[in-house]
Design a protein that fits this description.
twelve-stranded mixed β-sheet; elongated
Length: 406
């Protein structure tokens, strides 16, 4: 029989376990750890003082949990191991994978939770809790790529394609494709984003799968094909961890305006990693090139044509998936200037594309944000790239802000 209780002390989640951890009970305790990780806990103490036996099936649980947490900048700490349980870990050569404390007092004495925040400042803005750090960074530059003028009537041709060098922008979004021959890549233009100079895009075909090209220093001259979009860079002026107060979720429509209270700039480049609690998005089903132009002469966004041209979320999806978003936001759309307004959807002050990645714990440490961006982009499976809408919600996440001059 296995029993456990959970408590919170000084930012640590304690799981106090009693009984036997073997093939019959290991799934139960693994489920508890998975639930705690899903709820955002990154530092967990397993108090095993009252565990009288653990088999290899039980050992595997702790190893799996440790690997999950380490990826996200956390850890599981072992506490109160009896000599017999300690010997089992040692015999399996697993003890070196864990931090071990003989008692609660010893673990608490070694914990300085403020240090892990790296000097972060705490703030509550419009129902969102932030922990953020400000950095020294020069303003980034915004580049508008191509034009949206021909999108509504699917009137683009090969002469409208803009070649963007992979080394030109650290971040960006728009409609893009990959390839050397227009006869091939012209049929594929879809929602795209640039993340650390790597391109991800969703081809506009019947059963799309995200295609991508990862950047390396040796490929700075590699070209991405855009119909329209924007690029910006380079360094983050502010990095902030956010979550809803009292366990609530954070809607994109609330998050973006709140970011302007962390910065005095009028135009922001936004890059974020978050845990989805429901994504609302849309993406093209067809490439908006002249060969696909609607025969009825109406816009692709006209109600008659819209179902054939756009995939539009009718309900929130991708619960608990990792969302990597890239976009720009204006403090005041009306005073932003014509070029900035040209990249903003009608009636909205921001334009964000996001990749939907596999489910994985994310680090909550602002100091690890750029490493997390690289890990997600290069290691996690990506299912879709979409233009995401303001109703999209998140449990928590980390956002990097680039202040943009234009």
């Amino acid at each position: 029989m296995l029993e456990w209780t959970t408590t919170d002390e000084r930012g640590l989640k304690w799981v106090n376990v009693r009984g036997r951890i073997d093939s019959m009970t290991s799934g139960q305790i693994q489920g508890e750890f998975a639930d705690l990780i899903q709820k955002g806990n990154r530092s967990i103490v397993a108090n095993l003082a009252e565990v009288n036996y653990i088999s290899s099936a039980g050992l595997r649980v702790f190893l799996v949990v440790q690997k999950q947490l380490k990826k996200a900048g956390g850890e599981i700490i072992l506490c109160g191991l009896s000599p017999a349980i300690m010997n089992i870990f040692e015999t399996a050569c697993l003890l070196s994978f864990f931090r071990v404390g003989s008692s609660k007092e010893e673990i608490m004495a070694g914990e300085d939770r403020q240090e892990s925040l790296g000097g972060a400042v705490s703030s509550e803005i419009d129902g969102i809790s932030f922990q953020y750090i400000q950095r020294q960074a020069d303003p980034g530059k915004l580049a508008v790529i191509g034009s949206q003028d021909k999108l509504s009537f699917a009137a683009y041709s090969e002469k409208d394609v803009a070649a963007v060098r992979a080394g030109d922008f650290r971040f960006g979004a728009g409609l893009a494709s990959l390839g050397d021959e227009y006869e091939e890549y012209g049929k594929l233009f879809g929602e795209a984003m640039i993340v650390d100079r790597s391109l991800f895009f969703l081809p506009s075909v019947r059963r799309p799968a995200v295609d991508f090209m990862l950047y390396s220093e040796r490929q700075q001259d590699m070209e991405y094909r855009f119909l329209h979009g924007f690029g910006f860079g380079d360094s983050f002026r502010c990095v902030a961890f956010f979550e809803g107060q009292d366990g609530g979720f954070v809607m994109l429509d609330r998050l973006v305006p709140a970011l302007f209270k962390l910065s005095e700039a009028n135009l922001l480049g936004i890059v974020f990693l978050a845990e989805s609690k429901g994504v609302w998005g849309m993406h093209l089903k067809r490439s908006p090139v002249v060969e696909n132009k609607p025969e009825n002469g109406k816009e692709i966004f006209d109600p008659v044509n819209f179902p054939e041209w756009m995939h539009f979320s009718m309900e929130p999806g991708d619960i608990n998936n990792v969302v990597l978003g890239v976009g720009v936001a204006s403090r005041d759309r009306e005073t932003a200037g014509p070029q900035v307004r040209s990249i903003l959807p009608s009636g909205v002050s921001y334009h964000i594309h996001a990749g939907i990645f596999s489910k994985e714990p994310l680090s909550r440490e602002t100091s690890m944000f750029e490493l997390e961006l690289k890990r997600v982009a290069t290691e996690l499976e990506v299912f879709r790239v979409e233009h995401i809408l303001g109703k999209s919600s998140f449990r928590s996440g980390t956002v990097g802000i680039v202040e943009i001059s234009f």
